[in-house]
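Page 47, continued from p. 46.
Same chain as before, 357 aa.
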Amino acid sequence: MSTMKRLLILALLASTLSACFMPGAIGMPNSLPVLPPTETARPPLLEAPPDATATPTPFQPIPPTAAFEPTEIPTETPIPTPEVLTFESLPTDFGPVGSIEEPKGITNILLLGSDMRSWWGKGSLFRTDTIILASLNPEAGTVSLVSFPRDLYITIPGHGQDRINTAWGRGGFSKLSAAFEYNFGVQVDHYVLIEFSNFKRVVDSLGGLDVQVGERLSDYYRGRLTTIKPGMRTMNADMVLWYVRSRKTSNDFARNRRQQEILQALINKFLSLDAIQRAPELYDLYDESVKTDLNLFDLLPYLPLAAKLGDGKRVKNYFVGSGKVTPYVTAGGAQVLLPQKDKIMRLLRKAMDGQAE
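Result:
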């Protein structure tokens, strides 16, 4: 494959690499496990004589990265009791919706991250635990990213109701795109799918990421309570995975926000001169883990748009958050999220037009 083709494909695929973060199933949003209380200090059982010589420590612990600062245990958050609803009282309509009128020339691409692992056998079923709809609008000069929670309970055409992250396993891209059109009125043109297993290697190949952290996060990192504060933070691959996979003190909505922060950091990194110079090498690496139906001719019209993304203001971020879903417990005890379709469709219209939410 020519270097030019690799550069073109890399420019678009770069924006998908954060789609491999989610490690497994989660519970209800805002169901935050309570962290253990700080232990009360106890007096030592033995006291060394005042003239004793200290024994050398056999090894020195790794010093903490500047991006992380130990802090006090966060305030405990009570676990809410989900409201159990009968099927007749469901606050959602599982029927089809009308199509959204899309701006001229827009292209919708699903950025997907699977929970597939390298040791799983070929042909194993997997879930798309990260789902981001990227709307490319060359006329407006914007790219809009809309994150969907993986526990969104929708109609999968031909299969009834289930979580949105199961649609791919029931028929691949055609089934997932049909689900988007049926439930949200969006026609999806292409997809980019990346597996979890190679993400850490990719970030290491870039020399880490500079991430603009939006909200404070406190959680246990390598057995130690650690806090990352808002602001620009430099993270290596291990830190990035910890940041986006944290679940003891956050929920799926917060992780969707952190995914988009990493996504923006990846876009910025790939638009840097250093990453562009390494494009052939990086493409070979990503070609092993990224699947897409995009080809060279699909990418050519978007080169002028890609060149504008460096200023950061042209990438718009949107989220299907807690105000657009209703927590629900199925008859089988599964905790899911029912879509408030009118609100989600209004959000999608604004995203495609590049308007503020």
